[in-house]
Amino acid sequence: MRHQLMRPRFLALIALFALAGLVAPGLAAQEATPGPITVMELTPGFTVEVFAGAPSERAPEQTVYLARFVFQPGAEIFPHNHPGSTILGVASGSLGWTLLEGSAHVVRGAAAGATGPAEDLTEPGTEVILEPGDAIFYEDDVVHTARGAGDEETVVLGTLVLTSGEQLLMPTDMAMGTPEA
């Protein structure tokens, strides 16, 4: 089965927000025709590429995604959460990541094989700066923001195990009504 990254109703939402100067992503798994990887700018200076999505046999009704996020210096993503488990690893640059709700876990040097100790983030408003090789992981109850925290482009690789058919990124504190057809 092939997967689509956008539902038609979310395409309409993206167009609506783009016209208003905002971009509201509506990525979801559905049928699609194969093609090149699309780079989507979600906010000015912040792009995402979803390289792959595949159903998980170990986690029924979940889809595993592989993605690359790129932040230009100072670019920030609005408050949001994801419908499942997320692990992010910083490949280059500096990522500022701010917890708004829930709890997350940072592993410094994860790219070198470190599995702990994990820094537990539980206090709303806590920001961490992740450097190359650092990782952060969290579940669907985590609302957060992220930004390019350095003077150079920040590249983050992500693996997300998310509820199949749901948006990959769910904005909070934004009116996300469905436009009438």
Task: Kindly summarize this structure in a few lines.
The chain is mainly β. Helices cover 7% and strands 48% of the residues.
3D structure, described in words:
This protein is mainly beta and 181 residues long. The chain has one domain (36-171): Jelly Rolls, CATH 2.60.120. Helix content is 7%, strand content 48%. It contains one helix and 15 strands. It has one helix spanning 8-19, and strands spanning 4-6, 27-30, 39-43, 46-55, 62-71, 76-81, 84-92, 95-101, 104-107, 119-121, 127-130, 135-138, 143-148, 154-163, 170-171. The strands form three sheets. Strands 3-4-5-14-7-12-9-10 form an eight-stranded antiparallel sheet, with no helix packed on it. Strands 11-8-13-6-15 form a five-stranded antiparallel sheet, with no helix packed on it. Strand 4 (46-55) and strand 5 (62-71) form a beta hairpin.
Radius of gyration: 16 Å
Order of helices and strands: EHEEEEEEEEEEEEEE
- Head-to-tail CA distance between termini: 28 Å
- Count of the separate structural domains: 1
Q: Which CATH class is shown?
A: Mainly Beta
CATH homologous superfamily grouping: Jelly Rolls
Enter the CATH topology name: Jelly Rolls
- Unreliable stretches, pLDDT < 50, 5 or more residues? 1-33, 175-181
In terms of quaternary structure, the protein is single chain
Across the major sheet, the strand order is 3-4-5-14-7-12-9-10
Mean pLDDT, nearest integer?
A: 80
Continuous helix count: 1
Biggest sheet, open or closed, and with what strands and sense? 8 strands, antiparallel
Measured as a percent range, the helix fraction is under 10%
Q: Based on helices, strands and strand pairing, what is the structural class?
A: mainly beta
Shape: globular
Provide the CATH architecture.
Sandwich
Strand content range: over 45%
Number-wise, the strands total: 15
